[in-house]
Design goal:
The protein is built from 16 helices and ten strands. With 344 residues, the protein is of the alpha/beta class. A six-stranded parallel sheet has the order 2-1-3-4-5-6, sandwiched between helices. Strands 8-7-9-10 form a four-stranded parallel sheet, with helices on both faces. α3 crosses α5. The radius of gyration is 20 Å and the shape is globular.
Length: 344
Amino acid sequence: MIVKENTVVYVACPALSATGGPELLHQLVHSLRINGVNAYMFYQPSMLNPVHDAYKIYANPFVETIEDDNRNVIIVPEEKSFIDLLAKYSSIRKIIWWLSVDNYYIRFNLASRIMNKLSRYTSIFENYSYEARTKTLSKTSDLLKVDQIANASLHFVQSYYAYEHLVEKGIDNSKILRLSDYVNDSFLSVDLESVKTRKKDIVIYNPKKGFHYTKKIIRSLRDINFIALQNMTRQEVLDTMVSSKVYIDFGNHPGKDRMPREAALCGNCIITGRRGSAGNSFDVSIPDKYKFEDTDENLKKVGEVIRSCLVDYERRVEDFSSYRERIRNEKAVFENDVRSIFLG
């Protein structure tokens, strides 16, 4: 049990950031407060209005300072700047939440931070980030060499991929607890049978992930309509997913990504690579025949499966029924985990 009498839980989060990680951080504080825990957001950098519009629905209070007391808890995501933040405090109990294993290594490397500024060159960045992470991993034999990681009281993992990595890098598995996530309620409420009538022969993808390979697929299938999920509101993403039949993702899958799950709930067939969390059957639990190494030799096979999903959609989409059911149960699992971990 983490929460004791008079415990305050602080959850650190990037200010004005709207991605999967920050949403999960907001979901945690929201869940803790529902369960009677005195929990707050702690945004970095500090500013007058740090809450992104997308997360105002959680109505989480935030603080600008932390009481450094051993009855209290601070939870930070794995980004280096947040882990470095822990050095400011000597008494508070410290927890690192590994939402994205890769992002820790990417941001650990100065060169990759320079590349982040060039992220508009998506294909260059995608290739570089994966290679930078791999190169840095090979040089980092033990995460325990980083003081703030070694001194953390606990580590939460959002994915099995993260758990395996922490154990491999020397973290005692008794200090690792599973705390996953769930997709936004707007996707959980989608009724598959009703949206089937809206389906078109459309393939969707996230251009920020795996585009170096995705563009090869697009070039090899010029007669198929591909739509990039970019510059869209959440509602526009939802509407696009509801009308499409296939979602492809050949990115590095640094954690248990939300977008494949959102697409699956909207009735898409899911096709991925095998990098990161997509390389195991726990985090991306789709049939193995829908996962491919991102090689030129596999381009034809990927194209054949995409075409089959479009033409034989009614049958193919049933291959993902167990994946969808697991995703629908994630919110209940998350809430149970929160109660178990924090309240005992």
